[in-house]
Amino acid sequence: MNEIKKKTKNREIKSKDKIVDVRKHIKNIAIHSKDNSNADEKETQNTYAVDHVSKKGKKAINNVKEQSIKNAKKQYTKRKENKIIERQIQNVYTPTPPSSSQHKSDKTVSENNSLNKRKTVQKDLKIKKDSKSLPIKNKNIVIKKETANQKTYQHKIKSFVKLKNYKQIKDSSKNSNRIKKGTQSAMKTLKGSLIFIKRTALSVSNLVGAGISLILLLVLLLFIGVFAALSDNSSVSSTNAPLSVEVLAYTDTIEKYAKQYEMEDYIPIIQAVMMQESGGKGTDPMQSSECPYNTKYPNKPNAIQEPEYSIDVGIHYLSDCFKSAQVKDSFDNEHIFLALQGYNYGNGYIDWAVKNFGGYSKANAKVFSDQKKAELGTDVYGDPNYVEHVMRYVSLGFGNYREQPNFDNMDAWGTNNPYSRANLYGQCTWFAWGRFYEIYGYSPGFIGDGWKCVDQLLQAHPDKFIKSNEPAVGAVFSCIGRNHVGIVIGWDGENITIQEGNLDGLTNTFAEAKKDWHTATYSLDQFRTKCKGVVFAVPK
């Protein structure tokens, strides 16, 4: 009987384990009622999945909000199940005191079925899901509230949602960076302007408070600043024009006083000044009556009645302007331009231009003229374009028809010279090309034999030269019978002065070629006989 009772008891235990205990666990498995539990779940999910997400991910999360909430719900349910299982295993449950028969049965189940406890809990959860429709009358089991782990769970939900939407957040960040980089490039171009505007605004604000005198100072500074920006515009466009016969007639006189006032290297510029001032005509060809060195005649326009005295006074004053402008040599364009404008305005302009603008420019020359007109109450003061007007009578390289070649000018004798590149140093074509470039400042355009040079020059520059049987200063000649070419540097109507190279008839080194040339004068008939026929390309 004992064995039968034991067996019966075991059956009851098993039956109780499967049915009674399970149902009792189911009846009290929730902390709150069904309605409260569901409400809490929804509140927790919505609050932490949407309201407390990171600000940086809000925009991306809103775009996928519905999907994120669904995923969060599933994850929440799964995590909750796992938590309950773990707590069941770790004896987290704190059941209410059962009746004596129930206690005995539970103790027996705990002793004999410890290995099946996890399965029982899983069944509890499964039944719990389905038990929403079952009537629960008795609540004998109570689960410990999870308030202690609520914050941890909320943090994990937040992390989960952020992780789930990491890609969208990252893409959003990338788009933001692209926009940022795009705007940065635009901002860099505006940065300098904004700083300038800001500083200007502050300065104006301060100046208004300081008074009208400071505002006038600001206007003056701005005025100077505008033209300072233009002060580097010192280039002069030069269109070469020939000297008149009247100017050339004063060559000997010009050379005399140029030597006296140490201006020998600038004879072509002196001639160009005379050409601009008078064309070599009148009793005051240098228009120097108003110069301070005129002590013989009144200091008013055209007062001088002796051309030679005019040349003396004019070159003397031009020499002072060159010294004041600190001209170094005939290739020092910057300071020569400053000196020339000083000759026209008076050398007071030189100090003014250097002090306010660092040197000459066409813009500040006009400013000076305008200021003087306002001071004197006149409509005209000098010629703001004086430098350009003078330089049209001088080659770009300041070549002197009568001076010796400057072999240090490598543009003429080396770099640009096609005969130099072919190592034809000393040839008459090499010499004529170099001298032409020194005088006119551009290529003559010939690259062939000497007897072809005139035709090639006319083909290259038909607007500047014409073909002639009569010479002119600055003309290129080709000896038809001798295959020779050279430059005309003087012509008085009877005698012609030329410069030519290749006296030894050989191709030389550069050092030898620099000595293989000369200046010679012939009557025109002698020269024609020497050349066995000659043709000229004369400046228009």
From TrEMBL:
Residues 423-502 form the Peptidase C51 domain. Residues 88-102 have a biased composition (Polar residues). It holds the Pfam family Lysozyme_like. Keywords: Membrane, Transmembrane, Transmembrane helix. The chain crosses the membrane at residues 207-230. Residues 246-383 form the CwlT-like lysozyme domain. Residues 70-119 are annotated as: Disordered. CDD domains: CwlT-like (cd16891). This is Lysozyme family protein.
